[in-house]
Amino acid sequence: MQLSLPESWHLHLKSEMQQPYFLQLKAFVEDAYNTSTCFPPEDEIFKAFEMCAFNAVKVVIIGQDPYHNFDQANGLCFSVSDKMPHPPSLVNIFKELEADLGIPYPQSGNLERWAEQGVFLLNATLTVRAHEAGSHQKQGWETFTDAVIKTISEEQDKVIFLLWGGFAKKKAKLIDETKHTILTSGHPSPLSANRGYWFGNSHFSQVNTLLKAQGKSPISW
């Protein structure tokens, strides 16, 4: 198993990947994939990094854990593979997108189209055992992805961070708000959305307004 980042990210994170905790994490992930069914597929663990080069990052969306059922997780937070039913949180993301920007509800829940435009779709934990939510938490992934967020904050300028829900909001402490923009709201999960904490946040239009003000091309959501 090759747990290796694309070159654009490796340049900034190679020292992190030499830390003892990451070597232990790598051994854990290799054993997990060899002895049980895990998601996403092995070649998609670092897909968020592969689809959005370090210097191309304009927007960061932070999720928590990959989907844990067959054919769902594809290495991008909130995203599912083509032709898969949309999980409830993704349904609410698309509903808000439709209300905010008038974009028709999409057929595919695959968010690769966002990643290709500079939206970095990062889960805090990058792998999971089949049908066991959170099963790969506290093995080192969170330490690594916190370092990723901090590196973006330190080495980039004017990135827009979307922190949805209590877990993601805790990552604000890793981000320099004098250089970057943080937009927060409730989580798009039905529990949060139905309590009024998600719908109406207008994050998608706000992102595009901010990007245009920076002289960057808006995201075609």
Automatic annotation (TrEMBL):
Cited InterPro entries: UDG_fam1, Ura-DNA_Glyclase_AS, Uracil-DNA_glycosylase-like, Uracil-DNA_glycosylase-like_sf
The places in or outside the cell where this protein is found are: Cytoplasm
SUPFAM superfamilies, per the entry: Uracil-DNA glycosylase-like (SSF52141)
Stated EC number for the protein is 3.2.2.27
Reactions performed catalytically: Hydrolyzes single-stranded DNA or mismatched double-stranded DNA and polynucleotides, releasing free uracil
An example molecular function term from Gene Ontology annotations: uracil DNA N-glycosylase activity
Sorted keywords for this record are: Cytoplasm, DNA damage, DNA repair, Hydrolase
Assign the protein's first listed, main location to one coarse class.
cytoplasm
GO BP annotations of the record are: base-excision repair, AP site formation via deaminated base removal
Where are the active-site residues found? 65 (proton acceptor)
Pfam families recorded for this chain?
UDG (PF03167)
Sorted alphabetically, the Gene Ontology cellular component annotations on this record are: cytoplasm
Q: Which residues form the Uracil-DNA glycosylase-like domain?
A: 50-211
Q: Which domain of life is it from?
A: Bacteria
| Record function comment | Excises uracil residues from the DNA which can arise as a result of misincorporation of dUMP residues by DNA polymerase or due to deamination of cytosine.
Similarity comment: family membership: Belongs to the uracil-DNA glycosylase (UDG) superfamily. UNG family.
Protein's recorded name: Uracil-DNA glycosylase
- Please state the gene responsible for encoding this protein: ung
